[in-house]
Each structure stands twice: as structure tokens, then as C-alpha cells.
Amino acid sequence: RSKRRGRGQITVYSQEIAQEMKRATHLEQALRNAIIANEVDVHFQPIVRLRDDAVVGFEALARWCDADLGYVSPAVFVPLAEERGFIDTLSDTLLRKAAEAALSWPKELFLSFNLSSAQLMDPKTAFNTLAILNRTGFDPRRLELEITETAVMTDADTAQKIVAELRGAGVRVSLDDFGTGQSSLGRLRDFTFDKVKIDRAFVSRIANDKASEHIIKAIVAMCEGLDLEVVAEGIEDFSEALKLKALGCGMGQGYFYGKPTDAGTTMRFLSDRYVSVEGRAVNA
Ligand code: C2E
Ligand code: MG
Ligand code: MG
Ligand code: MG
């Protein structure tokens, strides 16, 4: 294509590429600095049991607001940290912060944390993760790690070893964004997961799309047979919640139940919802 457009066009392209690389390198530097300055934060979004709306856990979500760049989405800076080879540093910081915050929650609530695909190709991940939990004093049995199909597909052997080691220590593993990756249902058999998170893409369409409803119904039935728990992601209104409940989906997460909020706001949310009964916190 560039040949036909002539030399001038090639110059424009390479200038654009150079611009893009400059932007990425600037972003990388800002992110590295933010990690050192402890400016990358973690927010928490509630996950509820649909039957009675009881909060059962929270997903930790990375948040970064740069003084010059403004809000940068984790969908941008997580892949950047992966590409530039410092996802382990970023992730360790986030997990430490998340686990520290979760120490103050009622004991029966779990913390769900996203592992990036690069981390599932790095044999050090299991050891690092368990070391952070140990240092923080957070019970591994209260941690869930969210991984995606793509991560599992790339280097299945390494990923499987990491997952097995973590599960051996009591950590639970969920398959995130289910239905969107290059799914192979066989993975669900080969891999030991505890939970499947149905991607928001299906949930957001159930109101007026029969196909999405059937897909969710099928996922729920399959998970029941495989003894996996199911979470629907991205529930935004009451009618979606009702439909998912009717489809037999066990858990839900989305703006309807709560947006991701910082550690302090999450604690206030919990004290509003929980009453303490003989020292034990229960859902109000
Ligand atoms: P994810 O793990 O699938 O997280 C769910 C995303 O959906 C979050 O976006 C969340 O804020 C958003 N969400 C939740 N409920 C609703 C809803 O009702 N409606 C809509 N429209 N969106 C909803 P967020 O926080 O921007 O994160 C995007 C992605 O970045 C995450 O997708 C995850 O893949 C990645 N990510 C975030 N934090 C981390 C992290 O600490 N480590 C790693 N490795 N990845 C992270
Ligand atoms: Mg997730
Ligand atoms: Mg997801
Ligand atoms: Mg996602």
C-alpha cells in the first residue's frame, strides 16, 4: 500500500510511528515514576450473591491519575507495563495494597485480583504472589485470581503450573471475560478453575437480544455440570439483575450493585451494609 502512495506517504507513516513511540515512552516513564511515588491506586467493586444481594467479595481494579495526563485506564497502562517488562513490579504493588485494604473487611469476604497474561508466563509469579500474601498476613484462601482465556492459551504448560501451585496454597482461580477470547471449551476441562466470569458483552445485551440470553443460559448449565461458580459482569440495571437471577446465575457484579471505589469508601460501604453480631460481621 505504501509503495503506491509514494515516498512522501512513507515519511508520514514513520513520523506517526515515531510520535506513537514517543508517547508510549513518555507514558512508561510517568507510570514507572507513579509506581515509585506510590501514586498507582487500587479500587474495589462489590461482587454480590444474586439470590439475596449479599456482598460476597470485591474485585480490585487498578487506578492511576497522572497530574499531566489525567486519568489513564488500566486497559491502557496494564498492557504497557506488560510490553515494557515491569508488570511484575506494578502488580506486586497493587496486590500488596489490595490485600492490606482487604485485611479490614469481614473475614468471609474474598478479594479478587486480576493477573495479566504476561504474569502467567513467568514461573516466578506463584512464589511472588504467595510471598506478598504472607508478608501482608492475608489468608490465601480469601484470594481469587482472575485470569483470561488468552493468558491460558499462550503458554498452557507454564500457566497450568502457576495455577496449580497457587491453588495448592488455597488460592482460587476464576476465568475472566468468559466468552470473548479465543475460547476453547477444552480449557475448562484441562484447567482447574473455581469460577467463571461471564463477560459484560453478553450481559449488556440480554434485555433485547435472545441469543445472548441463550448463551448465558448455556454457560450457566455448563458451569453447573462442571461444578464451577458463575459471576455475571457489568450488571447495570434492575432488569438485567432479574433476568440473570432467572437464568440461574449465582453471582453478579456491575454498576447496579456498586461502582469501583477507593479503600476508604469501600470500608464505609461495608459498615453501612453490615451489622456486627457477637463480633461477627454479617450482611444486613
Ligand atoms: P476486568 O477485569 O474485566 O474488569 C471489569 C471492568 O469492567 C472494569 O474496568 C470495571 O470498572 C468495569 N465495569 C464493572 N462494572 C461495570 C458496569 O456495570 N458497566 C460497565 N460499562 N463497566 C463495568 P476497568 O477498571 O477500566 O478495568 C479494565 C480492565 O483492566 C480489567 O477488566 C482488567 O482486565 C484490567 N485491569 C484492571 N485492574 C487490573 C490490575 O490490577 N491488574 C491487571 N493485570 N489488570 C487489571
Ligand atoms: Mg477482572
Ligand atoms: Mg472481566
Ligand atoms: Mg476485561
From TrEMBL:
Source superkingdom: Bacteria
EAL domain mapped to chain residues: 24-274
Record-given protein name: Bifunctional diguanylate cyclase/phosphodiesterase
Species whose genome carries this gene: Shinella pollutisoli
